[in-house]
Fold:
Amino acid sequence: MTDYRRLRVALLGAGAVGSQVASLLRQHADELADRAGARLELVGIAVRDVDAKRDADLPRELFTTDADSLIVGSDIVIELMGGIEPARAYLLQAINSGADVVTANKALLATHGPEIFDAADQVGAEVYYEAAAAGAIPIIRPLRDSLAGDRVQRIMGIVNGTTNYILDRMDTEGAEFDDVLADAQRLGYAEADPTADVEGYDAAQKAAILASLAFHTTVPLDAVHREGITSIDKSMMDAARHAGYVIKLLAVCERLNEASGESISVRVYPALIDRAHPLASVHGANNAVFVQAEAAGNLMFYGAGAGGVQTASAVLGDVVSAARRHIAGGVGVGESTLANLPIVPVGRVTTSYQITLEVDDQPGVLATVAGILSEGRVSIATVEQTVVESADGESGVARLVIGTHKALEQDLSDTVERLAASGVVERVVSVLRVEGN
Amino acid sequence: MTDYRRLRVALLGAGAVGSQVASLLRQHADELADRAGARLELVGIAVRDVDAKRDADLPRELFTTDADSLIVGSDIVIELMGGIEPARAYLLQAINSGADVVTANKALLATHGPEIFDAADQVGAEVYYEAAAAGAIPIIRPLRDSLAGDRVQRIMGIVNGTTNYILDRMDTEGAEFDDVLADAQRLGYAEADPTADVEGYDAAQKAAILASLAFHTTVPLDAVHREGITSIDKSMMDAARHAGYVIKLLAVCERLNEASGESISVRVYPALIDRAHPLASVHGANNAVFVQAEAAGNLMFYGAGAGGVQTASAVLGDVVSAARRHIAGGVGVGESTLANLPIVPVGRVTTSYQITLEVDDQPGVLATVAGILSEGRVSIATVEQTVVESADGESGVARLVIGTHKALEQDLSDTVERLAASGVVERVVSVLRVEGN
Structure:
């Protein structure tokens, strides 16, 4: 056995991911030492209750409630507590005491990222966070390093496993949202309070992290436009399928070339995607990040987005990187926000749309609708009109499914308002953006 | 404009990739400087003929035939000449004169990788080669860094765009190999001499590079089992489709747990893949690398496998990494071959198979065939027997499509030989491995 230098590794948190990280650090100690060029000695695990039941079999003497003492003198601190405080305070303490830090805390990075990266820059420490963006999928290094000589134009990510699981089952089984959600909760794919997932908050945090990195711009969480999937029902799924689409909750990070200069848009919403698009075949709770770069073209990174052991893989990769840097010395280039592009509201974004309306089945209605769209600078690409059946066979109502060319979001929403108030439109059934075309 | 330190960048070769790299280095100079933390000054381009026509508009004074003088005093040397010599000599010269090197030369790395990595280790230089493994797809950093704390179990890669283009068109259009190849040559997807692609030599080089990295083991090119796609015809494609499979040329790098200890297998061959597998939806000239890791589970990396500008993206990512290292100082951990696992011949590999036979349509033939398989330790999973139609309607020949459970390759090939010599088998139509199940 090679006689390696020892590095002291402190772990904060022993939940699903933390337990796996601790187990793997001990189980693969020799192999990790060879890879890192240093022995990674787990010196302690800070928890709230040392006697709580754990997922993994770990020696009791590793556990402590005294995180402060554990952090002092550690070379690498792994933060897997989640939440904002005290995670933020501990990370800053670790950075200021000379440690490199590894975190999977997307909520913290999406809200306090600049503060943490600045603190690390000040003292020449590194912050590793591969597990915070898309679980086990390696996306941080590709964006930061592999594409460092390229220009990212757009990222479309399926970055939340729970919502993809729900939408996928609604699509493949024709099930209703509430039924699948209940099932997902029973199976452990969704939490008792599913708000963070189904309302898109989790995806928005990841979108902020990915956009910051891809566009070298500080993206505050509240600059991310966010819509969840609770309004998606079976009839919308059926209509999407009929038109050759599938509905996915997408995190879209886009570089815009506006007349006033370059800017970016970051948004999370359910959107239609062509079934032939690589993102359409991301099933179950899997995640995928589709990247369009100026030179590299289209790339996709696919894998498990969550799960204790999967996320532990990403954390350990970061720990090995941190150890290699400790051995090699030298400080990397910090998180760059040199570009600092303006972030535009969703109203200034251009996409195509599918608008489904119920209208009076009378002569001239289509002309009226087409006129309102045209006045609103929304150009029609396709129209499909069908008669809505009623019990007595004479509903007097027709259904219009209108596919638009690319239009400005603001124009589109103004136009939909005008349609709703026009007198010929009975009901706006759905308005969905179409991405990836 | 920030006043950055200047790094001298020398480029060897100005073909499709080299011209793009030179253009992008100049075009995005300011942005690259911000990303790298240093100005990347292209000091010269070594070529055989300074007056040859180039793909990009580059100042004539950059070109030189004197590679030796160009290399001396350069901080970063980019080798895009291809071939073994003089590329090998120039790379070693660059390393020994203190430069970090970037190369896209898979033939060179697959044959002289250890020599080049050793030379770099000796002097503390780095060798970057993201573009050598799967074109623009970032796969080196994920394998080397992101998965450094995990254990790769298996890689299945579609790593040759030409053969994927041919097989995909055969599959989707029902076309014959020769016709699609001729078309691919006309369209520039295949070279006039297509041997390197269609016989699997290019894929084998990439397999050797990927396996070396994933398993920390020196994998010489001649340890890679290699079969091409020239024997794949329309009838095999049709049969695969009928059975729910598609045929892909796969580079398989696998960790084996044999009784005698761990070992690896590296092989390139056309194989059947279930249509629901993510690799099955890789169309056209695209590439994808599917990675199964112990903790991370299944990951897939997808993108353009070749092309001048796409490959240039990967090269520039490496140049930025090299520059960051120059600024930061410190030496990374070298290419690790610490594991040095034994590489086993393909005969010791276990996979499942689809065997298609034409047999006499007589009582007892299936029993005889089943008996030979059983004696050969090949267990049958599925059998489909159909009568082969002939002009007069009575061919007396039946077609047997046998799906096997996992069997040892050596057992399988011995068994197929015995079947061929058994007297009841008229013809062994095809034997294809099934991967990804």
